[in-house]
Amino acid sequence: MKPFILFGSSIIIVGILISAVAFINKKNEIPENHLQVVLRDIGHQLLLSAKDSSSRVLPVKKLNEHTYQISFQNDFGFISDTLINLVQRTFKKNALANDYIVSLRNCKQNETVFAFEINGQTGDLTPCRGRTLEVGCYVIEIDLLKKNKFNFFLLLLLIIPLGFVGFYVKDKFRKKEEAASISDDNDYIQLGNFRFYTDNNVLKSEHKSIALSEKETKALKIFAENINQIVEREKLMKEIWEDEGIVVISRNVDVLVSKLRKKLGDDNSFKFINVHGRGYKFIIEQIPIKNQVNGKKNWNV
């Protein structure tokens, strides 16, 4: 797999995962307007339990990202259990937060006179049940506890790109190991200073190995069998793609030859000459004459 394909695939997958995380987070968010209505209803129900049907619940204030304040027009009194049961019942009915802390504060002294916590992980804390709160000015603060859940999507954002990189690196090492393990007894075609092992998709010299793709191997083999001869584009298209049922255009041939030029670019003796309107001619300049060794093919100019 080419590096730019690897990089592009990783970017696409990461983009999809980010979009999925954003969608799920948005789906799980409580609409602000809905939350405001629910909190005002808690205040209204609390006033009704205190037999006050005329006082108003003042606009709900958002103190920070997770904390809201309910305040009232007039003083009132109630029993602590009423607030505990009312908040639990309302939150459950409207599928709001499962974990939260409710604090009742005195307006004048600005101190907490009553508080309780509902928490599925650490357990509920509901002290002072049955306590009668005298008539006074109160505000209710509700802190919606944020869950610190392990986000598997964020883990995937890290694992998938690293997986692609690991696969690419492993594939590169595998190809190098395969090239290093090729025996001189394997069949090869001598091309200049290189031995072309068609079965292993590799070119190997004394100091260098060049890994080839299957299509690059097919193309180079055709050129090696037709050195100094024009190889028609149609022949390359047929033997590399069309015999496998793949329909291509002549541009595919140009791209493939360009890849071979790049891989063989360090050896100036290899030349791929474009013959306009026909195809390509492969020549090897100044090849040292070598005798055939171990029955291997030796192509010379």
Task: Walk me through the structure.
Helices cover 40% and strands 23% of the residues. With 301 residues, it is an alpha+beta fold. It has a 5-stranded antiparallel sheet, with helices on one face. It has a 5-stranded mixed sheet with strand order 11-10-9-8-15, with helices on both faces. The longest helix has 29 residues, at 152-180. The two termini are 34 Å apart.
Q: Can you describe this structure in just a few lines?
A:
The chain is 40% helix and 23% strand. By secondary structure, the protein is α+β, with helices and mostly antiparallel strands.
Radius of gyration: 38 Å
Tally the beta strands. 15
How does the major sheet shape up? 5 strands, antiparallel
Proportion of residues in helical segments: 25-40%
Name the structural class.
alpha+beta
Content of β-strand:
15-25%
Q: Strands across the major sheet, in which order? A: 1-2-7-4-5
What distance separates the N and C termini?
34 Å
Regions with little confidence, pLDDT below 50 for 5+ residues: 288-295
What is the molecular shape? rod-shaped
What would the average pLDDT be, to the nearest integer? 82
* Order of H and E elements: HHEEEHEEEEHEEEEHEHHEEE
SS element count, helices: 7
